Amino acid sequence: MAALVAAWIPRAGARAQSVAAPPPVRVGQRAPAAPVTRLDGSTTNVAHYIGQRPVVIEFWGTWCGNCRALEPAMHAAHAALGDRVTFLTVAVSVDETPADVASYTRAHDYPPDVVFDPTGAAVDAYGAPGTSFVVVVDRSGGIVYTGSGGDQDLAAAIHKAL
User: Fold this and answer.
1) Residues 33-83: pLDDT tens digits?
2) Distance of CA 152 to the CA centre of its chain
């Protein structure tokens, strides 16, 4: 988490630290568990979402330009496949509160499963190299896709899990 936060925090004036980040998860790996907090303050675990149907996990921040660029594709994928796939947005907005994130997601019509990663446990478990990092998990819990950036082909990635 330290390296990831260091990469994100400079926009807020903090100095980057040289801390080795865990490597990102890879295709073929099992999706790891990680504690997260729902926006209402209750706790859950990423593992709660895995194993019933495919899951699209996006590590996201309200301030992230790539996340905003990816937003239309995420909305289109949710509209087309939301009845067969769970969309889990992991907010890593280290300088915002869950209330800030909830307000943004309501205003931008995000799918309902938005969680907050207050300790960086999910970031560390998935080795998220930055925001707009997407992991697609099949119904058995295997990772079938990872990618970053605002121009990902989410439909093709998700179809790997169906």
Assistant:
1) 999 999 999 999 999 999 999 999 999 999 999 999 999 999 999 999 999
2) 14
Indicate the pTM of the whole model. Answer: 0.86
Give the C-alpha distances (Å, rounded to integers) separating 145 from 29, 78, 94, 159: 10, 17, 26, 10
Nearest to 129 by CA among 43, 28, 7: 7
> How far apart (Å, rounded) are the C-alpha atoms in residues 134 and 110?
15
| Distances 123 to 12, 73, 143 between C-alpha atoms, Å | 19, 22, 16
Provide the sign of the torsion angle of the four alpha carbons 161, 124, 101, 98, taken in this order. positive
Q: Is 33 left (phi over 0), alpha (psi -120 to 50) or beta?
A: beta
Domains and CATH numbers, the chain: 2-10+28-159 (3.40.30.10)
- Per-residue pLDDT of 41-52, as tens digits, reads 999 999 999 999
Secondary structure class of 38 (helix, strand, coil): strand
Q: Which two tokens stand for residue 144?
A: 């079938």
Whether the Cβ atoms of residue 57 and residue 134 lie closer than 8 Å to each other: yes
Q: In the chain, pLDDT over 90 holds for what percent of residues?
A: 77
Q: Kindly tell me if the per-residue pLDDT of 7 is higher than 60.
A: no
Q: How many CB atoms lie within 10 A of CB 19?
A: 11
